[in-house]
Specification:
two-stranded antiparallel ribbon; globular
Length: about 280
């Protein structure tokens, strides 16, 4: 990804090194592992955090903070460029819809962070909080993504674009509609709807990739393959096999590897936000 020299977003806030040392993880080490695998890429943070805050507090491992003053911070620079790319794409797309895009803020943190959705630890993974229109990211997550089989800078950009996809959903009113529907559903049905939400965020990430490739030229050969590999790496079926040796579809939170890849690919190939209705009956890419 040709990101060096790109425009930097002004909407990155660095809170690394400011978090506390204790988070509620529940279930000891085993619970933490399940949490990491189950919640990659933005499970509903409000429901999650309410559950976490009732559990027993456990000591969290220390995470690296921000570099010392005067030391170049390439990670922050990279995130700033990627966020700027999403801003450019979605401002233009919203203008085409006759709407105005409001940029989200991206908060970098280590250990734990306080958001309008509650206090979250690094184990939650990247998440978007619709209560404050902010994305929260502990950069140590990228190490986990690499270990899960999703290496590369464009794979990391896909993570950011996915979370921005949740912001797009919020601005379009999709988030509120889904939450209202979930209040009238069984737990199983509500969970299935959450999967559709995540797949649509993957689709919007693909739309971003479609336009950023054409608008700025930051996309290099092999970058899209990196994003597709990352989407496959964090499919629910693959993560469940890795963590417990078998697949439980009713426990899916984000969709299978095949679904995640397919919806990202549809967004990338069409570049048309209207083609991402993952909620339609029998919707398939």
């Amino acid at each position: 990804m040709r990101w060096a020299g790109g425009r930097r977003s002004d909407n990155v806030e660095d809170r690394r090194g400011m978090g506390g040392g204790r988070i509620a993880i529940g279930g000891g080490v085993g619970g933490l592992i399940v949490l990491v695998l189950a919640l990659l890429f933005g499970a509903d943070p409000r429901a999650l955090l309410r559950q976490m805050q009732t559990d027993t507090a456990q000591e969290a491992p220390s995470q690296p903070g921000a570099p010392a003053p005067g030391v170049p911070d390439q990670s922050r620079e990279f995130i700033s460029v990627v966020l700027a790319e999403t801003e450019d794409v979605w401002r233009e797309q919203f203008q085409k819809m006759g709407r105005q895009y409001a940029d989200p803020k991206l908060v970098l943190f280590s250990d734990e962070v306080e958001s309008a959705c509650g206090v979250a630890g690094a184990a939650v993974g990247p998440f978007y909080c619709p209560e404050d229109d902010q994305i929260y990211l502990d950069l140590s997550f990228f190490e986990q993504l690499d270990q899960l089989g999703g290496p590369g800078d464009f794979a990391q950009a896909y993570v950011v674009a996915h979370e921005v996809g949740h912001h797009v959903q919020d601005l379009l009113g999709i988030t509120d509609q889904v939450q209202a529907m979930q209040q009238q559903m069984s737990r199983r049905e509500a969970n299935q709807l959450s999967v559709r939400v995540e797949l649509q965020a993957d689709f919007f990430a693909g739309v971003w990739a479609h336009y950023t490739e054409r608008m700025s030229g930051v996309v290099e050969p092999g970058d899209i393959a990196e994003a597709l590999q990352a989407a496959s790496a964090i499919g629910d079926d693959r993560l469940q096999r890795r963590s417990q040796g078998h697949v439980v579809p009713d426990a899916f939170t984000h969709g299978t590897s095949e679904q995640r890849v397919a919806w990202f690919r549809r967004g990338y190939e069409t570049g048309d936000p209207s083609q991402g209705d993952t909620f339609a009956a029998g919707a398939t890419p």
